[in-house]
TrEMBL record:
It is an enzyme of class 3 (hydrolase). Keywords: Hydrolase. PANTHER family: EUKARYOTIC TRANSLATION INITIATION FACTOR 3 -RELATED. Pfam families: JAB. It comes from Leishmania donovani. GO terms for molecular function: metallopeptidase activity. The keyword Hydrolase applies. Its EC number is 3.4.19.-. Coiled coil: none annotated. Residues 90-143 form the JAB1/MPN/MOV34 metalloenzyme domain. This is Lys-63-specific deubiquitinase BRCC36, putative.
C-alpha cells in the first residue's frame, strides 16, 4: 500500500461554445493548495486531470481545470498483512507527510498527498470493507488539514 504524491496546478483550457466560437482560458502556473501535503522520491510517474470541462460550457463557466502531476509514491510499513487485507500504520502516513515537506523545500513546489493505492492480484477489484474504511480515514485526514 502506498500514498500518491503530487503537485497540483491550475491550467487553462479553451472553452468551446454551442455556436462553435472559442475563448482562451486564464494563464497557467498558479499552484493550488486544496489538498493536504505529502511527497517523496521525485520522479513523475503519471498525469491525472480533475475537473475537465465539457465542450459545451456557457461563457459564464470557469475557464480553468486542476491538473495533478504525480511525482511518485511513499510506500509505508504494513500494520497488518493477511491474505485478505493490508493496513497502513499511522506512522507511515506521518512519514509521508514529512517527505512531502522535504520535497516542497527541495523543489520549491508545493507537494500534496492526493490519494492512496494498493493492489491485491488474487482478490477481486471490488473494494473491501477495509478498503472503504481506509478511504474514509484518508478523506478525514486530508479534510482536517
Amino acid at each position: 500500500m502506498g500514498l500518491l504524491l503530487s503537485r497540483i496546478e491550475v491550467q487553462p483550457f479553451t472553452e468551446t461554445h454551442m455556436d462553435g466560437s472559442r475563448d482562451a482560458g486564464f494563464p497557467a502556473s498558479q499552484t493550488d493548495g486544496a489538498v493536504n501535503g505529502v511527497c517523496s522520491r521525485g520522479s513523475a510517474t503519471a498525469v491525472s486531470t480533475a475537473g475537465a470541462a465539457p465542450a459545451t460550457l456557457s461563457s459564464s463557466a470557469a475557464k480553468r481545470e486542476k491538473v495533478a502531476y504525480i511525482w511518485g509514491t511513499h510506500i509505508g510499513e504494513r500494520n497488518v498483512q493477511r491474505s485478505d487485507r493490508v493496513e497502513m500504520s499511522a506512522e507511515s502516513v506521518a512519514s509521508a507527510t514529512e517527505a512531502a515537506d522535504r520535497m516542497t523545500t527541495d523543489t520549491r513546489a508545493l507537494t500534496y498527498m492526493v490519494g492512496w493505492h494498493h493492489s491485491h492480484p488474487r482478490i477481486p477489484a471490488v473494494p473491501s470493507s477495509v478498503d472503504l474504511c481506509t478511504q474514509r480515514r484518508f478523506q478525514q485526514y486530508t479534510e482536517s488539514g
